[in-house]
User: What shape does this take?
Amino acid sequence: MILLGDLLILIIWYIVGVISHIYWWTKDHDFNQSDILFAILLGFFGPISWFIGWCVQGDLFKINRVIFKKRKSKLF
Assistant: This one.
């Protein structure tokens, strides 16, 4: 028997997955009917889909990032 708290956690997990898919994968284009199926399917991954979206669409894998910033010398 699934308790009400467990059901609430599953619903929140699913909603976070759907919203994170919509947020990350539709940054470059509008959300339309072709994105609905993917949002429904990726909703099952929950917060994991937010992390995957951040890795793919975010700044994690950009090649031209500055790792160490060159500091200016204050002596000269």
Q: What stands out?
A: The chain has one domain: 4-57.
